[in-house]
Amino acid sequence: MATLRISNKTYSYKDFLPFLDGSVKVTIGSNAKKDIKNSYSNLLENLSSGKTIYGVNTGFGRLSHIKIEKQDQSKLQLNLVRSHSAGVGKYLDAGTVRMIMALKVLNYSHGYSGVHPDTVDQLVKFINNEVLPAVPEKGSVGASGDLAQLAHIASSLIGEGKIIRGETVVTSKNVLNKLNIKPLKLRQKDGISLVNGTQYSTALAIKSLSNSLQILDAADAIGSLSVESSLSSRDTFKPIIHKLKKHKGQIVSAKNIWAMTDGSEIVKSHKDCDVVQDPYSFRCIPHIHGACRDAVRQSSEIINAEINSVSDNPVILGKSKIGFSGHFHAEHIAITMDHMAIAVAEIGAISERRIHYFMKGAEGRFNPFLAKNPGLESGYMLAHVTASALVSENKTLAHPASVDSIPTSGGQEDLVSMAPWSGLKLLKIQENVFTILAIELLIAGAAFKLNSKGLKPAYGTGILLKEIKDVVLYNDGDRELNTEINKLKDIIIYRKIFKKLKDKNYLEC
């Protein structure tokens, strides 16, 4: 089992990816524990001096003018968790829930939240015992924190929510009893600190960033096979040409295509042909894939910054200092996921154009739709239609969520980020693009089989072709294709093949 030790250091999105794959143990360093304890002590000092602290001795939102007496402050926190557990929709996957809780622990470890140490310990117990709250995916607008989702987690911590155990949803109370874990008692600031924060949005961003990086690797590798199989020019990808443009992503993608097509007998066979320039979807792969690479790289920087940020309000700055702000607002994450959505959708769009080129015969190099007997057979006509449908779906989904807003809480929260919707629709786009790339892989492989005539593939594309040879039935003519598409999609998603290509220096991140 992997372990994440949370201490006073800077973390990367990579540190949280293991939570997507399975159980991860979380430990807290001694300095972080000290900071958490001191923060709670500082909260008590501020309260004892008579300070008014939003959400601790006042109501919330438009009700913040109402003073809450000391004897009702714990009840205030409990009521907040109960009333905010209003999410709807299907439950989040286990990996995302693990990540949200771990990000919460990291947030508290900075020592500005004022939560009782028991609250942090309870989160760690949940993570380490694989106690996964049932968290509905919808209901957050990404400002004043991801309130609904985080409230459902908080509800489970206190023994009132639901837990997912295998395929079953059970009560938190029963699970905690079986594991001999006491329900958490909420103290002065525990409720508001649990429901405040960008951890749900950030978890979606980490997950979608990982997917985006997979897609970029796959796009360069599969695009290389399309270049080779379509008899397109390799010379256009020479690194010396692309060094003239100063975009790192473009240089990397050009280098990848150049390396992936090295040693191809097919490329050598048409070196002196009359074709001067190929369509943009082939010739401009480095420019388009590269722009998407740079967008994703920029997104990773913003996501890493959010991971290491404090997203509480209010924050405890010392024994006599309270800070009020809007650190729960997920605008950075919303915009960066919208940016990734545009980039990933563009990868799907250029992939579909390469598929289309094969379908129309690649300037007479193939039968239409790669059919063996055109007319009697339809070839890959409908595989292309499926790709086209997904590209069009992505065009709608790529509309930025962050440019939309809707006032909530009686107008107090008058401009919200919509970061969770930005993340959820990005995941839908990515699912579609994985499928589009699988279709391109299917068709580029078919074109290679038709065009190779005994010639050997490039070293890099040869590894890719070897990986798929037992999945596709190219000799069978017209056949049901959805099974092959789904199997190829699995190859892309689980990416062992792309690690192999990286290890052999055919792909660079």
Give an overview in words.
The chain has 509 residues and is mainly alpha-helical. It folds into two domains: 2-197, Orthogonal Bundle (Fumarase C, Chain B, domain 1); 204-313 and 323-503, Up-down Bundle (Fumarase C, Chain A, domain 2). Helix content is 55%, strand content 7%. Strand 8 and strand 9 (321-323) form a beta hairpin. The longest helix is centred in the C-terminal third of the chain and has 34 residues, at 419-452. The two termini are 27 Å apart.
- Count of helical stretches: 20
Q: Please outline the major beta sheet.
A: 3 strands, antiparallel
Fold-level CATH name of the largest domain: Fumarase C, Chain A, domain 2
Helix content: 40-55%
CATH class categorisation of the largest domain: Mainly Alpha
Instruction: Give the neighbour order of strands across the main sheet.
Output: 4-6-7
On the 0 to 100 scale, the average pLDDT is 95
The number of E-state strands comes to 9
Any idea how many domains?
2
CATH superfamily of the largest domain: Fumarase/aspartase (Central domain)
Structural class: mainly alpha
Shape: elongated
Uncertain residue ranges: none
- Helix and strand sequence: EHEHHEHHEEHEEHHHHHHHHEEHHHHHH
| CATH architect. name of the largest domain | Up-down Bundle
What is the beta-strand fraction?
5-15%
> How many whole angstroms does the radius of gyration measure?
26 Å
Distance between the termini: 27 Å
